[in-house]
Amino acid sequence: MKNFIFSFLALLLLPAYMSGQAIKGKVVDSSGMGIPGAVISASNSRTTADADFDGNFTINAKEGEILKISMLGFDPVSVPATTAPMKITLKESEDTALKEVVVIGYGTRKKVDNTTAISSIKSEEIVKTKVLNASQAIQGKAAGVQVISSDLPGSTPSVVIRGLGTAIGGRNPLYIVDGMQTENINNINTNDITSYEILKDASALAIYGTRAANGVIIITTKKGSGDKVSVEVESFAGFRAPLKTVKMAGSNKYSYYSNAALQSTTFSQDQPVNTDWFDEITRTGSYTQNNVSVSGATENVKYFFSLGNYEEKAVLNGLDFGRTTFRNNNEYKISKKVTLNQNFSVSSANSSPKPLSAFTNAYKQSPIVPVYFADGKYGVSRVGENGFASETGSSFNNVGNPVAQLNFYDEQQRSVTLQGGLKLDYEIIKSLKFTSQFNGEFYTWKQYNYDDTKNIWLAANPNKVDSDYAKEFPNGNINLLTKGREQYFNWNLSNYLTYNKVFAEIHDVEATAGIETSVKGPREKLTIARKNVNPDSNYWALNDPNAGHGVEYAATVTSLYDVVFNETKLASYFGRFQYKLMDRYLVTGTLRRDGSSNFGKDYRWGTFPAFGLGWVITKEDFMSDVKAINLLKLRGGWGKLGNQNVPLNNQSYASGKNAYLGGSILYEGTTISSQIDPSLSWEVTEESSVGLDFELLNNRLKGSFDLYDKNTSNVILFTKPYMTSGLTDQSPAHVGEVSNKGYEISLRWEDKIGDNFSYWIGGNFSNNKNELTGLKDVILAPKTGGSLGNGQTTKLLDNTTIGQPLGSFYLYEYAGFDATNGKMLYYNAAGDKVTQDALDANKDRKYMGSSLPKTNYGITLGFNYKNFDFSVDGYGTGGAKVYNGKKAQRFSGENIEDSLATNFWTLNNLSASNPAPFNEVPVASTYYLESGDFFRINNITVGYKLPIASNNFISSCRLYVNAINPFITQKFSGFSPELNGDGDPYGTQGVELDAYPTLRSFVIGANLKF
Amino acid sequence: MKKIYIAAFVLSASIFTGCSSDYLDVDQTETISTNDTELYNNDAGAAQFVTAIYNKFLNWDMTSFGWIGLSSITSDDADKGSSPGDTGTDKDVLDALTYNASNPSAESTFIANYDGINRCNQALNILPKLDKVDAGLRSRLAGEAKFMRAFMYFTLVKCYGGVPIVDHLPVPGLESDRVMQLTRKTAAEVYTFIEADLNDAIAALPDKTAYSADEKARVSKGAAYALLAKVSLYQKKWQQVIDNCNKVTGYALVSDYASQYKATGKFDSESIFEIYAQGAVPSKGIEGYSNTQGARGTGGWGWGFNTPSQSLVNAYEAGDVRKAATIIFRGQTLYDGRVIPNTVENERYNYKAYSSAYTNAWETDVDIKYLRYAEVLLMKAEASNELGQTSAAIPLVNQIRNRAGLGNTTASSQADVRTAIWKERRVEMAFEHDRFFDLVRTGQAKAAFAVDGKVFTEGKNELFPIPASFIKQAGGLSAQNPGY
């Protein structure tokens, strides 16, 4: 193969050696940097040459002959050849479409030449919204990319690209940070990012093979540039508060409602205490971020250093989060042909988590309960004879004191992530480049959680004294300390060749071929729990100097888990061929072959092909007169992708089936209780897509339209083994089929009015139809989800789910209440209205829509006037359902929302909108299901650039204020309709229970350059 | 510089040596791979696969609430008990004999026994591969597995009639194994299979004296003979009953009937096959067995299900010590001094499920004695009587009666002796999970239930329904029992 390439090349290069003399020169850009790849052609001599990495070229031409020098993204120039070394400066083209480059896997491509669907988001867009995680910042900025985020500091947003194609496999996109594949980007300082590219369609993704089915996000971090040292400082500080709160009943209304529920006069209706529990557990959050970066370039070295720190005091009392990041990216030019890129980053995160169930407890706890009783003891939900809260009365709900819960909760976590890589580029011959890249990631995490068991019990039982604890719990712990440690090392190595050449001026060929291996090293996790430790945290881990080792704690260890998770390896071959004819006809072909250690020996290799076609219509002669259309490009493609992040198919012994056999010796017992199909492998997604890119009216209106049809044909679901097999474990099998069909539109208008005023307005809209379209002839093990923690579940995936979207709610349909007694009624399968005890769980529930939105959209607008800049970004979703899980928790003496407290059925209020108060756990029904539609202004920024001459010590200073999430319109009556939960559509996603509220933040900051 | 590229190429090439076949073989670390049989290729390792079968008998679904429902609450010996409003999922319909094809207890019992059968098949599959294990031990372990497989199929055939015989580990995707798992065999075929397993077990198992004090729960040759006798009894193979009963040697009745159900009575001379439970930490008792049957309400400790019926109370003759050993009466003082206050919800509770040391624990030290020597005597008596050797049967019945503090039976005709033996079985083995099946076996069911005020539909209630979910899985290969 190699020989073939060389002889082919030799043949094509032959004419270059035939006539004239060697004219030498250098092509540079306006800043004096060489322009590699610039094309120099001498029309008379019929010779061409490419500038090398520094922009130097040699061409055979006659002196005085006109040389045409051109380069994509620059205006071409024609100059006469001179024998003296020439210096040619190219001016950057105004035509931005030609200049823009997108990062594709293992290379880059001019945007105009790209045949695939890639959303590119530049650094200015990412840093504009002042949030910690870049994925949260891009929400609403890319069509077809749905981001469900939470303002809980340190949380990972869910990113769904063009719909969800898997039910139990991994759902996260693959992140590639400077060539390193990772699972999330929580360790990346947003300020260090140059570009954030989202590969959306199969023809772009197939180069990542069996990890690409959920999409790929490529993040490129900054490099140094320019010829002098540049120092940038960016700092901001802001405060945060919940965007929306729910008004709860006050203590008198609570008493009224609860008495009605109990049909008693348990609670006095003139309460001395009125606790607002939400207020008691929250504070005004605050956060600050400071970044310093130093960058620059010399002839042989480009360097970039950055140090960043983020600190947040969250709105939930006691919840703090901090992250410090350091990054160093260097590029060394070792020789004319060899460039070495090195990047290294450290991220250290610190947090003191608090349980989010405090939000639910604050919602539920009665306002008649004081935070503290008069004697300083924590308030508890007991009511005395006088109808007031009392230490010794009778208990009226089982909700704890949320303030006590937070105060007692003592946990610290710290993680450190090191990422680094080396990338070597070697220009073997002109047009042929070899790249070798190694990246590694080391992660370490530690945690402790201290449970003050006895004091927690005493706080919950103010009528008890210290000595009662030992009486009631003779073997109980005084306290319990849990310590966790986790670490892993992942690495990958890729080697590839890139060949790029234009033949006969019209055939532009680029080919890439390489091999790669990715290894996720064994993840180790150790968790130890010890009881009755010293209450002083300094003395939790003592040394015993006489013994020469630590103090022996074995006797106090109550549990010890030590897990080494399986290592996974991937070996891959990949190739891509890109061809452009006459700057207008584009063809891309990709092939990846992956072998994964996750699968059985005979089933571990898969091939993932793709192709893309493009037609730049505006380059056609017949379009040359159409001045209104600057760019019109039609593109389309097909490809096959895999998702290898699926349940492992290794069959294991089931241990722990122990028994005594007549004496006091416990014998170990082992069996096999699973049967896993050895042919289990990755899920395969096929996608066909077409897209249209356009720029109109002097490039002022830009946009694109995309259509896609994605089908995952072998979705893995858990099936029920035959009952007579005796196998108790569910068997994962390739039995489902999921379809995602959708379209995406994005538009942006940009213009200038005069010299001082420029503005833009843009938006995007995407729609996706997700559906479980088929199942093989199997009986699925029903997958229930959205548990409310009270025996009720809200979601289901089983044989009946065909035709429904993934993440569908499965509920009883509320049928109003019985006018005669105020009891809630539900429709049964026959359509009759019945009470909940007459419902049949197997027949009467229905699918009621999914927690995943069908549409999402974003808008952006803004202007620059002189030194001022202003911008607004908005985001919305449609078609999702959310379940008011916290409201559905009430079953006896819990608090209710203010709107419910007096508006309920009584014999005197038959037209009330709510049923009579009840004292039982309500079934999961549509009574608690609400629309998740919302539109939110995500960000408003106003900036002002101080008028400073650029040769000052401070060359630039911009001051700004931001309002993040200042407004929302939502239909949901709870805190936030954006509910990521555990990120699982079959978990708590879309269920508001123990959920962190969406925050509104105001920020002031400055950006300085030196 | 070129050296670097050469090195890089070589490095990347070496990683993929041999088309990556070795490179991608990653050893499991988070679970023990079933490929790693060598780990168990030693005496203790081999025994683990059989211990797992014994462990199954301790499970909730195998021996506890659902099984209590099927084998006891259905019978005329017991009522649902508990609070009137507490159905115990389906214990009300079991008590009333109005269950349908989706009955949860019938389903869980079906699943649990096949779970146990899988454990037997797993043991029988791996034992021949463990070549470093003592041959004698391997043979004995296989015998234990076969005994327990036979025991489980016996439970299945009693409950459901003919069921699919899964006699080996099915190969996924193999059509014949799919058919094996989904096709019901006839009851006769199941009995033939059980007898074959028991004959293998008899050949492989030692006498009970061969086991050390810590392994008395292991099944012995005597247990296999006794079970074969009982299986023969259900098939009315009378001579075979007698022959096998005669081979159950080395056992004797204990003098104090009540002692058998106390912690001190474990593995006494009468015990033949006993499910052994340990309440001490780490507890390995029968999950929830004592608790579900414990006294309910103020002063109680359990859920209060499976209460002795008035019909059972009436069945005891005056002076029968077994009544007091079987039934806890409200207000009574138990042998360990515990007073059952009058505030508990039900009049009577099952004494045989009572644990003195771990009263309210989820897993206690209450054993179940599935085969006792007393039953061997009664089986032999019944078979002898059926073969016309009534005079040989009477002394056997009297042994049982005398131990219970009663005089000799007055029955003398073959028919009267038959009735006397059946009645003796009832009071001797009450709450030992035998009564319902005994009523069906002997054809007394309709009449007995009528006395208890329930309707036993002949042609239907002899068998429980095959779980509807299994019939669905079988997709036409298996049919439901009549009437469901």
Number of strands of chain B: 6
The outline of chain A comes out as globular
> What is the count of structural domains of chain A?
3
What's the number of extended β-strand segments of chain A? 55
What structural category do the secondary elements of chain A indicate?
mainly beta
CATH-level-2 architecture of the largest domain in chain B = Alpha Horseshoe
The average pLDDT value of chain A, as a whole number, equals 90
Are there runs of chain B of 5+ residues with pLDDT below 50, and where? Answer: none
Q: Which two protein chains have the largest interface (Cβ within 8 Å of the partner's Cβ), and how many residues from each?
A: A-B, 60 and 76 residues
Give the termini separation of chain B. 83 Å
Inertia-based shape of chain B:
globular
Major β-sheet profile of chain A? 22 strands, antiparallel, barrel
- Helical fraction of chain A equals under 10%
Mean pLDDT of chain B: 93
CATH class of the largest domain in chain A: Mainly Beta
CATH-defined topology of the largest domain in chain A: Maltoporin, Chain A
Q: What is the fold-level CATH name, i.e. the topology of the largest domain in chain B?
A: Serine Threonine Protein Phosphatase 5, Tetratricopeptide repeat
The number of helical elements of chain B comes to 20
CATH class category label of the largest domain in chain B: Mainly Alpha
CATH superfamily of the largest domain in chain A: TonB-dependent receptor, beta-barrel domain
Oligomer: heterodimer
